[in-house]
Amino acid sequence: MDGNGLMKMVHDAARHAAARQAQIARNVANADTPGYRAQGIGSFADTLREPVTPLRRTRPGHLPPTDGGIGATRATPRASAASPNGNTVSLETEMMHATAAKAEHDTALSIYSSARQILGATLGRR
């Protein structure tokens, strides 16, 4: 993988972790909403394993423009027990998912920082 490919993948991984954090925040915000179903976004590794079918534009305006990045985020319902009001949000579960998303984001930032330092050293900058 070349440097540009690495940087793009790290960017996509950080963006994916941010999307996971945003979904967790939505779940926590709706913890008391009757009937709300907790949703989750899979890990970045799981997203990379999913086959990507390229979309084909058949006429102008047919499809909205996309950035074509890896790690498209789709929220899916989480299987969990519902409370008496039909809500499936568990704050303990959301905090565990938040910790995992933060770890993914921190990893992406660490890889980005290391790659930047290596590139700088290669160019003779410190």
TrEMBL record:
Keyword vocabulary terms for this entry: Bacterial flagellum, Cell projection, Cilium, Flagellum
Keyword Chloroplast attributed: no
Subcellular location: Bacterial flagellum basal body
InterPro entries referenced in this protein's UniProt entry, alphabetically: Flag_bb_rod_N, FlgB
Family affiliation: Belongs to the flagella basal body rod proteins family.
Protein name: Flagellar basal body rod protein FlgB
Chain residue ranges for the region called Disordered: 33-87
GO biological process entries: bacterial-type flagellum-dependent cell motility
Low complexity: compositionally biased ranges: 72-84
Gene Ontology CC, one term: bacterial-type flagellum basal body, rod
Entry-linked NCBIfam families: PRK12627.1
Domain (Flagellar basal body rod protein N-terminal): residue spans on this chain: 16-37
Function text: Structural component of flagellum, the bacterial motility apparatus. Part of the rod structure of flagellar basal body.
Pfam families cross-referenced by the UniProt entry: Flg_bb_rod (PF00460)
Quaternary organization: The basal body constitutes a major portion of the flagellar organelle and consists of a number of rings mounted on a central rod.
